[in-house]
Predict the structure of Putative exported lipoprotein.
Amino acid sequence: MKQPSTIRYATLALALSVGLLALAPSAFAAAPQSKYGTKSTQSAQSGDDAATQASAEDLSDLQADARAPRVEGNIAELQNLMQAGSLIELRETRNGSYGAKLFFLAQDMLFYVALSQEDRLWRVVKTQDQVRAESIYAQFARKSSDLADGEIRRMQLAAQKSLLDRVIAKSADRANRLTADLALAQQQDSQVSERQQQLQAESAALQTDKLEAERKLRALQMQVDQLQRQAEAGLAPVSVMPSR
């Protein structure tokens, strides 16, 4: 009774051994293929990822966005209406380079309120409510006034500085002229002083010469008088006969 069981166990063990021997070569042969196959799989996956990224980039292409319909806001809409001459200008406030305007589109009963800087639209509000349009216009007008305060102050300071620069330039020019006149006057004073000294010296010399000439003249007159007396000393007096 025990022999058949032993035979069955032996047969089962033999079958398992044969099966393991048959599977072993295929397992060893598949191992290196699996190693290189992993690299191939990774390369294929990398290629798939690159293709996926390229597909994503293609989907976000700018040309595709350019072909999409362009959405224009209130600013572009108002600009188009202004160019077409479809608007009625109801109010306008100007403060420096800032301004506020209220437009009315009669055909659609729409109001456009615009805030601009240097004639470029900055903010635009569109509404069918006239009260709201007037309120927004008043806000924009006050904002343009507040924004222009610094600009107007700068303009005033620039004008004051320009005026001061002109006054300084004129004062400097006058100072230069006066300096030149003073230098010329000093030069002339020096020349006049030298001339006066020369004249005084000449006058003193002439005075000396004059005194010497007067002395000589007096001496000559005295000599002439003496000679005259000597010449007349030996002459008889001449009688003058009365005329009949």
